[in-house]
Amino acid sequence: MRVLLALPALLVLVGIVLVALGINGSSSGVFHDQISYGSDPDLIAGQPQATRSDEWNVQTVWAIAQVEQGLPLTNETFPGGMDATLPQDLPRVDWTVAFRPHLWGFMVMDVDHAIAFKWWLPGLALIAAAYVFLVSVIPRRPIVVAMISVGFFFSPLFQWWYLSTTLWPAVWALTSMAALVWAFKSSSVASRWIWASIVGYLTVVMATGIYVPFIVPAVLVVVFFAVGQLVDHLRQRPFRGGVFKRIAPLLAGGLVASAVTGLWLYSKRTVVDAFLGTAYPGDRSSPPGMGDLPSFMSAVGSSFTQSLNDQRAGLLGANSSEASTFFYIGIFLLPVVIWIIAREMKAKRSVPWTLVGLILVVVLFLAYLFLPGWDGLSKLLLLDKTTGNRVRLGMGLASIGLLAYVVSYLDKYRLRAGWWLAIIPAGLFLASQLLIGYVALRGLPAMLETAQLWWVWATLSAASIFFFARRQPRLGAAAFLIVTVAGSGLTNPVYRGVLDLRETDVSQAIRAIDEANPQTWVGVGSGLTTAMLLESGVRAYNGFQGAPSQQMWSAIDPADAYEFEWNRLAGVSWTAAPGEPVVSNPAADQISVTFDACSQFAQENIQYVLSTDQRIDQACLTTESGFNLPKTQMSILKVVPRS
After folding, report:
1. How far is CA 37 from the centre of its chain?
2. How far is the C-alpha of 608 from the C-alpha of 272, rounded, in Å?
3. What value does the mean pLDDT of the chain take?
4. Which of 243, 134, 249 is nearest to 200 (CA)?
5. Where is the chain membrane-spanning (predicted)?
């Protein structure tokens, strides 16, 4: 038990220190050079990632807006309001926050420390969950397990998609797998109920995050792992009625969690229906077989992770987040896994069905990626609700599971894979990286400018595979840790607190006007106007919307002429142009609307404008105040009746 809790206890202490110091990885510092001159005093290391706009320009901005409004269940920025729970998962005060532990800090801390708490809780929980699962399978190698767990946390996909909706499904999956291991090996009834309680709670935590594309692959890995564990147990101990007693607590926990989630979804059915009825993403379905050679290279190209910091489309994907992946060390060890299965069969021992289950789920994911023509089964397994890039989460979880059982088996029988058997998977990995490097050198050499040491990381990764196969897990884990930290350690900046736009002169002027007489605003021009209005807590027609507000859009588009354009999960921004509002989509998740202060819409609905757009027609506007910012001039304008 001491070994099981050693690293989690240490992580609690680390988390307390980090939160107390306000240290986090938010990229809110992207705003700094837009509002201030000189270097950012709160940036300790790294650079803010503009690509990670879901974090700094959506979740963090909305979180501060919620704090400014008093953590309501309905955010009042948009006319008509927006539910704070779906899909933005904003801090608020209601019973569902009991299952959003990363948001607890907002109820008792200032914004700087609350953001740090929100940042670190799911991340440290991921390390703890990986450790608990791995040490349950490999109990005599806690140092090796700790290195693998930390390295897994620094996997590119987790760092580039560092949000609670990404991390909690992985935490749930690893904790569930650990609970299954203990359910079949522990004689303690109390232990099984404790594990069931933890898994049940995390089930609701994951489900209320409601990001299905990451939930589906995580659930499938656990299902295949559970079947493998069950068959292993039955083969070793023929059924005598005891199996149900072992898994009954987990089933009960799952039943209670399903009931709680169902109650929550029922209470939010109007919002859910509106969200599913959007043009984007709506009831999106992704058929199998959409993968190609570039997507394969992107999935296995972990040695080129540093090139993602270039933040532009390239060989590995449309952007850094979409191109992020894992070092699939367990999957590359498949030749060793097959050798283990063959060895067990030859010795007439029980086939290791847990390994078989993990292999099968990897095959399932690969089939979804590259094999078309089985849409019906894919929909039955809910794979159509994920995407090719999101399914990598499941492959990463399966990979870490395969690695755990390879190490466990080799330790159990004090075996080493033969030299050739160890060289083959290491060589295959190295060959895949050399191929990607060659293609990049010939077609996109700029990609290698920020990943000049890719050949070092490729060699170390291949060495890690070789060392694990040869039963030298300390060396293998050390190489794994070095590779992942080197690739993604500074993907997110090391930042003190959060860049709070409420501290700017612009925001203080906005709030002074609004406190005297609350009015409705619109931000015209750069995205900074949207962030300023949101964080100032005023009513505005800007922001990243969830289910569209009918009151808001009936004012903008009373004839519903642009319903397809605005009925979507997207950011709403405004540009200056004459006439009534015209709505367009620069991208699927962007809504651009034109603004004219003399239009009927503006005359009836808007009192103030925050603008950086110098083209704006001043005919129906008076200037209240102006601010010279490093890259633009920002003005507060008042809408006046047209003459």
Report:
1. 32
2. 32
3. 95
4. 249
5. 119-138, 143-161, 167-184, 247-266, 325-342, 351-371, 391-410, 417-441, 453-469, 476-495
Q: Which residues are CB-neighbours of 577 under 8 A, at least 6 positions away?
A: 594, 595, 596
Dihedral sign, Cα of residue 250, residue 255, residue 260, residue 265: positive
Decide: 143 and 476 in contact? Cβ < 8 Å.
no
Q: What single letter denotes the amino acid at residue 202?
A: L
Cα torsion 377, 380, 381, 382: sign: positive
Which stretch of DSSP H or E encloses residue 622? strand 621-628
pLDDT in tens, 410-441: 999 999 999 999 999 999 999 999 999 999 88
Per-residue pLDDT of 91-101, as tens digits, reads 999 999 999 99
What's the one-letter identity of residue 197?
S
> Alpha-carbon distance 247 to 180, whole Å?
8
What is d(CA 45, CA 24) in angstroms, rounded to the nearest whole number? 11
In whole angstroms, what is the distance from residue 465 CA to residue 330 CA?
8
**Could you give the angle at the alpha carbon of 156 between the alpha carbons of 132 and 217, nearest 5°?**
65
CA atoms within 13 A on the CB side of 525: 20
pLDDT 10s digits, 239-276: 556 888 899 999 999 999 999 999 999 999 999 899 88
Strands 520-524 and 539-540: parallel
- The whole model's pTM is what? 0.96
CA-closest candidate to residue 447, choices 300, 294, 309? 309
Kindly list the distances between the CA atom of residue 461 and the CA atoms of 141, 331, 500, 503, in Å, as whole numbers in the listed order.
20, 13, 40, 46
Query: CA dihedral defined by 17, 20, 26, 29, rounded to 10 degrees?
Result: -120
Report the residue count for the chain. Answer: 643
SS3 at position 559: coil
Say if residue 122 is preceded by a cis peptide, omega within 30 of 0: no
Burial class (CB in 10 A: 0-12, 13-18, 19+), 248: middle
Cite the DSSP H helix spans in 268-319.
269-276, 293-300
CB 566 within 8 A of CB 594: no
Distant-in-sequence, close-in-space partners of 91: CB < 8 Å, separation ≥ 6: 63, 66, 67, 71, 84, 97, 103, 106, 107, 114, 118
d(CA 116, CA 18): 7
